[in-house]
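Supplementary Methods. Inverse-folding protocol.

Structures were first reduced to a discrete structure-token string of length 344. This string, shown here, constituted the complete conditioning input.
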């Protein structure tokens, strides 16, 4: 987290707005502090440095922000639409602070030895949003290839396949394909699309949809449509891919100064189990065995893994993994990533 502010009271539920260094906004329940929504933030150069509320007449609400060198505005409510945000260069030497006057007609920024005064003109922001389109159009623009691109088509195919999967794939009976998919299938679709959320991120996604209508209706949601799925994907996936240098930096940090980016197998397996999100030894053995395809192809390895004792799987992993592991071996051999693709 890099900045926070009270979210204007435009909903029945009260939120705390948090901006983080991953170009995301998070809405936290003001009472429980639970994450209720994750949204795509501005991607104008660097991440947000500070956000401030702009209360406005006629029940119109905006937030202003500064990045490393820019000042910008976003119209509310937040939904992840990038066209609801506009920004321009404020300080070439870097912006350090932004404040709004009491009536929100002017903004003041500081950077270097300069202080600037800006007049707020929401009409420009509305014009920018109108040019970006309505409905799902702005979100399709966030997908590689747009609405007719391969990613959008693939997402649609996974959406309908998940409906078949929830009704059992291995059956000859008539299946019903509708406009909704079970909420529990959302993490599987995300992983199939190449976005691998952590368990915490999975829980945030499920809770975001599950309780989206609870304040208004008192009921939870158990299904999602394609429109909601696309918005979830655009808002939750990382803005930028995983660059190869981050993998090398992680191995260098874990190995220490004397490790030269190489980690002992036992230490790496221990770190994977005990640092970050907890993974038990049987789970770790199952995950790595699946990645290394120790028990056959994807069509039958789940059944085979479920019948393999954890001790046997762990012993097998010790035989397959070398005693010393470096970043190249882990990304290429274990994860199956191509270094050239990760560097793009």
């Amino acid at each position: 987290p890099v900045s926070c502010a009270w979210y204007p009271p435009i909903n029945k539920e009260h939120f705390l707005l948090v901006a983080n260094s991953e170009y995301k906004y998070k809405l936290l329940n003001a009472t429980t502090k639970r994450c209720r929504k994750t949204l795509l933030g501005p991607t104008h150069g660097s991440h947000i440095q500070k956000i401030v509320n702009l209360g406005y007449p006629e029940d119109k609400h905006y937030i202003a922000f500064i990045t490393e060198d820019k000042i910008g505005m976003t119209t509310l409510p937040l939904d992840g639409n990038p066209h609801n945000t506009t920004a321009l260069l404020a300080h070439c030497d870097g912006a350090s602070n932004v404040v709004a006057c009491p009536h929100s007609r002017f903004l003041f920024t500081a950077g270097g030895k300069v202080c600037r005064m800006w007049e707020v003109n929401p009409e420009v922001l509305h014009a920018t949003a109108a040019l970006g389109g309505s409905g799902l159009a702005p979100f399709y623009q966030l997908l590689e290839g747009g609405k007719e691109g391969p990613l959008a088509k693939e997402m649609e195919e996974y959406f309908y396949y998940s409906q078949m999967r929830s009704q059992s794939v291995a059956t000859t009976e008539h299946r019903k394909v509708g406009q909704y998919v079970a909420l529990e299938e959302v993490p599987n679709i995300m992983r199939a699309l190449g976005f691998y959320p952590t368990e915490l991120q999975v829980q945030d996604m499920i809770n975001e949809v599950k309780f989206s209508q609870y304040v208004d209706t008192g009921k939870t949601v158990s299904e999602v449509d394609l429109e909601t799925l696309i918005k979830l994907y655009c808002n939750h996936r990382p803005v930028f891919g995983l660059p190869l240098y981050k993998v090398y930096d992680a191995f260098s940090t874990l190995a220490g100064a004397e490790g030269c980016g190489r980690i002992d197998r036992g230490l790496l397996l221990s770190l994977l189990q005990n640092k970050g999100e907890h993974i038990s030894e049987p789970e770790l053995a199952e995950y790595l065995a699946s990645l290394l395809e120790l028990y056959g192809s994807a069509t039958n390895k789940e059944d085979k893994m479920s019948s393999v004792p954890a001790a046997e799987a762990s012993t097998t992993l010790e035989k397959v993994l070398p005693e010393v592991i470096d970043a190249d071996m882990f990304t290429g051999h274990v994860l199956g990533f191509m270094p050239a693709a990760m560097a793009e």
